[in-house]
Amino acid sequence: LVSRKWRVRPTVLDLGDGVRIGEGTLTLAAGPCSIESEAQMESIMQHLVENDVRIMRGGVFKPRSSPYSFRGLGMDGLKLFHQLARQHGIKIVTEVMQVSQVEEMHDYVDVFQVGARNTQNFNLLDALGGVDKPVMIKRGISGSIEELLSSAEYVFSGGNEKLILCERGIRTFETASRNTLDLNAVPILKEKTHLPVIVDPSHGIGIRDYVADMALAGVMAGADGIIYEAHEKPEQAASDGAQTLNFAESARLIRNLRRVYALR
Ligand code: PEP
Ligand code: MN
Question: What predicted TM-score, i.e. pTM, was given to this entire model?
Fold first, then answer.
């Protein structure tokens, strides 16, 4: 069902208020790795509004390698995130980690994110097949393109056709970067599926100084959008500060992304 053989026309998602994801628009989503506080959200939302970015990312349930790391503000954080986002005309993409969260999160999110560690959580995918909200599925940490498409097929066949695929880097033998951003996946996915394809250069390379160039490369490779991490003070971020852009870097990237997209 997610194949181009089944549907030739590219899928375009409408989040409302003029926010679209898919062919014909460059989708930009930015924000912190983790939602931390009201002040943090206010500052980033102001930055997004100034730069006409309509979607904010930010996790309230964080999958952390160590149980001692910051694991997110949970539902209280999400409710505040939702309230502030609505005030600023911003849409929310945030990670759902387990089936039991789908229902409680439902009214407070615009796009459910399935994280790389949950790409093959088939119970979660089944549950998301039954909701009427878009789902962005990240490629698994060691997941193939085919496996990503199969995960999408779970949600689609469950009845939810509002899907976005996200290339966020895979684990390879290379240790010089956090992950290996597989830009090959972009044209391959675009050919194989009618679904929108988004690139996450932040997790893809994991090194702040290189994030912007990889984002631009993602757009040139044919991506329908970019999702990246930004924070007023990346050095103080509760998670992933080393790959997070500050507002000056983020504003410059947004300008360049729009230029590059116009060249395509
Ligand atoms: C994130 O978006 O902050 C995140 C945890 O991403 P991933 O699942 O790709 O590691
Ligand atoms: Mn992160």
Answer: 0.98
